[in-house]
Structure formats: structure tokens, C-alpha cells
Design a protein that fits this description.
The structure is a homodimer of 351-residue chains. The first copy, chain A, is α+β, with helices and mostly antiparallel strands. Chain A is built from eight helices and 14 strands. At the A-B interface, helix 1, strand 1, strand 2, strand 5 and helix 3 of A face helix 2, strand 1, strand 2, strand 5 and helix 4 of B.
Chain lengths: 351, 351
């Protein structure tokens, strides 16, 4: 991972140093956030977009909806534990879930490269449908474009989701409070390592499978049990470290993470060491953090543990006041250090 | 992806002729419809998708919504009369309009190619925002992915739209009735010719500009005036001929088009003759047909003519009963012939 210590989110000249788009502009780290800020948010500026949550919260005729979009360009199309089709459903469902919404409808937009085997497309589409059925959503509308050979890469999929919000909680980074506990629903790093392993032909003693999974049901279980959820964030591009930094900045608080409490499987840790990755920055596709008052922790963990997708849940940290928003990591040897947002690009086309 | 030959069991002969995707699978004609039927609809089959309208009609907690998605891969990014940014707003707005919906929110998903000039992206984004403001919609949520050089083509944009339906009309191909008049809001063929001209470096006496424009306001004027609209369809890929065929097939009726009544500008007609195109098949991005009872025609045309986007409106045909659904064209010399759906590919990457 290339270090660019001179760049910071607040530096307006940063993007101008890049006359052209680089892979890191899609990597989930500081460059992507600069592009978001300086190109997209500055042009599209409006109250809904400015919420800057995983999903936008809409109110249409008194009905509260979550609305979110993601394009999927993962390479390769099939990887241990998933494929682009199921990923395109899970990823968007999970963004809806981060507002506690019940996922209802997805759109599906395909950009196909000339020469793509029709059998490959059929398999992707069937996988999407299986994932959608599992999540209780309908693929309501779609679109197909074809580009010339060499102008695309097999298949890119956009899914955009609508979820219905049936609870009265306000869930978002600005609801995070000092003293909140931070829970995670399981071990981190498997999605990124699964992708890089198959891409580079690496073999480990065990096959590391992606954690790609839909977490909307799990989140609804928490809400229905009356857990006071302040914020939710899924840990995709940029991993746990980048998600925590986004929330710390929006909440203007300090997030303290206890490294020894963050679940990482031994095989994933080994793979990360071999590859020079820090699991805290590796992408997940079925993992999220939840911010709740300390009094709800034990009950929330019980609920999470009762679901296979939350079997490895634990508390990984807490929130504190600090004049400077930041994320600190208490390491295995007890020392605390600042945990920055991902800088540069770690794994292109992870999702 | 691994081969799953059992998936092709139900696949009729037409698609199996193509083991691989060809450009015409995105062209709006027969091959695209086969792919839609045999790959997408057969896998995703559900009551909402099976409406097969430009937008899906959703009911969430009693609120009626239109929901539609389109990916934009137009080449080049800028063309006379528009660019990929404004097109990505107009195109999706227009699909919402085809249910008579008030466009409310758009998502914007970008797939950027490494090396894209940031200035180009900024110009596209600003153009999107201007178009969105003009249409009264907010870009509520977004996503950015970056792919390696040679795996994309500058910028692809997906926009997915949510519109609110505030009328009680049922608008769709199955509402079309024998005796209905068919109205069009203006001259056809300019978008396709504008694209092909700039792509091939052709020069005509006048610059032919795309008709790219948002027609949602125009449609709402018709509805608010009490025009009984049975069906609406915008005339994008595959042009008027393919749109008419889709509706004839869904309505199980004959659509009769009077060629002399279809407005085509002389410069567009000349360009089409030079290029070997039939304007009836050329894509538009600000043109639609409306099916209404004959008694509403004069009033509807008055309303259309009062708006610049409908200044060239006219009645171009009517609907008749026929055991075989089809589209017939009464030509300039008075003879009638069958007007088929676009076969093969005319202009790749027109939108």
C-alpha cells in the first residue's frame, strides 16, 4: 500500500495533483473520499446526499425508504464463497440494512463485454436470483448494455435497492454518542483474501471463502428486540479501519478499537502477513459494526450469536469524546496508536 | 465461470445460436429481446418485473412508485446536443415519465477507467447536476468504481430512478385499445444521427443535435389536463419501429403507422439515406408515443404544442384489432407493409 502521508481529506489541492483517475480513486480510502468530496458531493450537493450514509433516507408521501446503489466490477467473476451475481445482491442489501431497512426491490443493470459466454451470464443471473430469493427481495427492473471487446471486462453489474423503514430509530453517524459500544458480527478479512488468493493463484492450507452474505435479517432481529442502535456501517472497501474513520469524522468523536478483540481467523491472519496486508483494511462483504449504548451490549450479542451470520460477534471497542475526531487502536502489546483511513489502493476490483 | 450446461435446457434455439454476447444483444432489437426473455426474465421472473414496462410499478405501504434503471455507455462522451451526464439523467427520468410518475430521486453509479481525466469527470458530473436541477430531482446516493485501463471506456454511468405516481390512471401496453390514437411529441432520429455523425466525423450542412431532453413535465401536463392516457413508450434503442412492435405484441393488437405523418427533419432524412438507416429505427432520447382515445387527440395535441418539447407533436397512427399482433406502415406511396422490430444492430453504444 503506497503511503501518501501528505494527503488529508481536508486538503483541496489533493485531487488536483491527480489529473487522471487512478485505481485508488475506487479503493475506499482517502483518494476515493477526496474524489467523493471534490467532484461528486460538491456538484450534487443536496440534503439527502449530504447525509453521507451507506443508504440515502427518503421520505415519499410519509413512507420512509432507504435507497442505495452499487456497481460491481469484481474480478474474477467467481471466487471462493461467491460470485459477482450473489455479491451484487448481498452488497446492496447490506447497504439498505445499514439503515435498518427491510430490503424490498432491486434494479439490475448489466454492462456486458462483447464475447462474454452466454453460459457465464446465465450462471451469474441465476446466482443473483437465488440470492434475491434468500433475501426476500424482487428484482423489479433491469437494463442491458453491450460494449465492444476490450471496452469492458466480462460483466459489470449495478444493483440499486429500495428498502422500507419500519422502525422509528434514527440510525446514522451523527447519532453515535460517547460511551457507545462497538459491536462486530464476525471475523474480518475473508472476502478480500478470498479474492486476492484466486486472482494470484495462491493456495493456503484451507480454502479461505468470502464472507459475502446478506445481513439485513440480522439487523432487523436487533431492532425488533428493541436494541437501541445508534449507527451501523458495513465493512467493505477500506475495511474496518476506513469505516471507523468515516464514522469518527462524521460524529466528531474518538473511536477506540481493541485489536485483540477484533476477530480474525488464523488462516486469514497468516495470508495477510504473507501478502503484507493489515486485516483491519481488508474488505468484507458480510460484516458490519453496530454502535449501541453499553447497557444493550450483552443482549445484542446474544441476538447476534443466535444467527449463523453473527456467530462470531463480539464487542471490539467503544466511543469516547475527543476534540479531534480519530480512531485509535489498542494493540496486542497494549500500546495505542492512531488508525488512519486506507491510503492509496490495496486491492483493486474487490467488489 | 464454470460451465453449467443444464441451464441451457429451456433455452430456445435463437439464443443458442449465439454462444457469446454480440453487440446486437444491447441494440434494442430482436436479439436484445431474446436475451431479455431467455436469460433475464426466465431467471428473475416475478410479478413486478413481468409488467415489462419502461419502469416497474411498485406499491410500498400504499404509496405508488415508479422504479427504473439504465446504464449509459454512450460513445463519445460528448455529442452535439448533450453528453453522457445529461443523457444519464434524461434517459432515466423519461422511463419514469412513461408511467406518468413525478421523478423524485436518482442514484448515480460510476464505473471509471483508470486514466480518465479528472476534468472530464468533473464536466460530466456538473452536466448531470444541471440536468437533475432542471428536472426537479435529487441525486440521492452514489457509488464509484475504478477499473484498469483497457477494462472500461472512460466512464460508464448507471442511474436508477424513483418516481412518485400521483394519478389514478393505469398506464401500460395492456391498456391499449383498438381505436386508440397514437401521438408522438416531435421529430425522430436526431439522437442517433448526432451520435453517428460525431463518431464517424461526418459533416452535414447543419449540425444535427440530439433530441435528448426530459419529458416528464410534458407527460404530467397531459395527465393533469385529464387526457386518458392508455400507454406511453419512449423511443430509445430500436426507435419508433421497435417500440411499436413491443406494444403491439404486449397488447395483442395491430398498430398502424402512417409514414407521412411521422415527423422527420429533412437533414435527418438526408443523413439516414446517406448512411443507409431508416429513421423509424433510429434512437431518440426525448421522444415518446402516447396512446389515447380518439376523442382526446385534439386536446392532447394542443397541450403538447404549448411546450417546446412537444412543439412538433402529431398523430402518427392508430390501433386496430388483428388476430396477429403486428405493426403496419402505410408508406408515402400508399402501400402498407409490415414494420418489424429492429433486427441485428444498427448503432452500438447509442446511450
Amino acid at each position: 500500500m503506497e503511503q501518501r502521508p501528505e494527503m488529508s481529506v481536508s486538503c483541496p489541492v489533493a485531487l488536483r495533483r491527480y489529473a487522471n483517475i487512478v485505481l485508488a480513486h475506487g479503493g475506499g480510502g482517502t483518494l476515493m473520499h477526496e474524489l467523493l468530496q471534490e467532484t461528486f458531493l460538491s456538484a450534487f450537493h443536496n440534503p439527502v446526499l449530504d447525509q453521507r450514509h451507506d443508504s440515502a433516507l427518503l421520505d415519499i408521501a410519509g413512507v420512509k425508504l432507504a435507497f442505495t446503489t452499487d456497481s460491481y466490477v469484481v474480478h474474477p467473476l467467481v471466487f471462493p464463497g461467491g460470485d459477482i451475481g450473489s455479491l451484487a445482491v448481498h452488497g446492496t442489501i447490506n447497504d439498505l440494512a445499514m439503515l435498518g431497512a427491510r430490503p424490498r426491490y432491486l434494479s439490475a443493470g448489466f454492462i456486458l463485454e462483447e464475447g462474454l459466454p452466454v453460459d457465464t451470464l446465465n450462471a451469474v443471473v441465476v446466482s443473483m436470483q437465488h440470492a434475491a430469493e434468500r433475501c426476500g427481495v424482487q428484482i423489479a427492473t433491469g437494463d442491458t448494455k453491450v460494449v465492444e471487446r476490450g471496452k469492458g471486462d466480462g460483466v459489470f453489474i449495478n444493483t440499486t435497492g429500495i428498502g422500507q423503514i419500519e422502525h422509528s430509530l434514527e440510525i446514522g453517524p451523527r447519532q453515535v454518542k460517547a460511551g457507545d459500544a462497538i459491536l462486530i458480527n464476525g471475523d474480518i478479512g475473508r472476502h478480500g483474501i478470498a479474492i486476492i488468493a484466486v486472482r494470484q493463484g495462491l493456495e493456503f492450507e484451507t480454502t479461505i471463502e468470502s464472507d459475502s452474505a446478506p445481513v439485513a435479517g440480522l439487523v432487523r432481529s436487533l431492532i425488533e428486540a428493541g436494541i437501541e442502535i445508534h449507527c451501523l456501517r458495513d465493512l467493505t472497501r477500506g475495511g474496518l479501519a476506513s469505516a471507523a474513520n468515516e464514522i469518527a469524522e462524521a460524529a466528531r468523536l474518538e473511536i477506540r478499537i481493541d485489536e485483540t478483540a477484533v476477530p480474525v481467523r488464523e488462516d486469514v491472519r497468516g495470508a495477510c502477513e504473507m501478502l503484507g496486508f493489515d486485516p483491519l483494511y481488508v474488505a468484507n462483504e458480510g460484516r458490519f459494526i453496530a454502535f449501541t449504548p453499553a447497557r444493550d451490549v450483552s443482549r445484542a450479542l446474544d441476538i447476534l450469536h443466535s444467527d449463523p451470520l453473527g456467530a462470531g460477534a463480539s464487542q471490539i471497542g467503544e466511543v469516547a469524546t475527543n476534540e479531534t475526531p480519530l480512531v485509535t487502536l489498542k494493540s496486542r502489546i497494549g500500546a495505542a496508536r492512531i488508525l488512519d483511513m486506507l491510503s492509496g489502493e490495496q486491492l483493486p476490483r474487490i467488489c
